[in-house]
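Because showing beats explaining, we think one record worth quoting, sequence and C-alpha cells together, and here it is:
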Amino acid sequence: MRTLSFCISIMIYFLFVDGLMAQEDCILGVGITKDETIIDVFQLNEEQAEQMINFSAELKYRNELLNNQAENILKRHPQSSTAELMVLAEKYNVIRDSMALVQRMIDIKTLKLFNKNQYLRYLELCNEAFRQPFRVVPISYQDSIPPK
C-alpha cells in the first residue's frame, strides 16, 4: 500500500513538473501574421519572401478546406443529446489539431529558408516569449557580392 501511494505521488509530481516545464511551440504565424511583418522582422530576401508568401497562400487554402469540413460537420451532425455533442466535439478537435499541424508544417518549411542570422533572430524571439522553437538547420547562402 505504501509503495502504491509513493508511486502515485511520484507520478503526480512528474505530471506537475512536466506541465510547468512544458512550453508552447514558437510559431512564426505564416498565413496568420501579415507577410510584410515576417519579411521585415527577419529581413527576408526576395526569394525567401516569395516562397514564404506562397507558403502563406498554401496555409490559407488548407485551412479553408478544414474550415469547410468543420462547417459541414456542424450542419450535419446531430446535436440533440450530450453523447452526440461529445462526438461532435471529438470530430471538431480532430479538425482543430489538423489546423495546428498544418501551421507547424508551414512554419517549419519557412524556417528552413532562413539563413543562420535569421534563425538566430527567431531563437532570440522565442526565448523572449518563453516559447519552444522549432529546430531546423538554417541554409548557408553564398554571398552575392564577389570578394575584392
In short: The CA atoms of residues 5 and 124 lie 43 Å apart. Confidence is low (pLDDT under 50) at residues 3-21. The radius of gyration is 21 Å. Residues 45-139 form one domain.
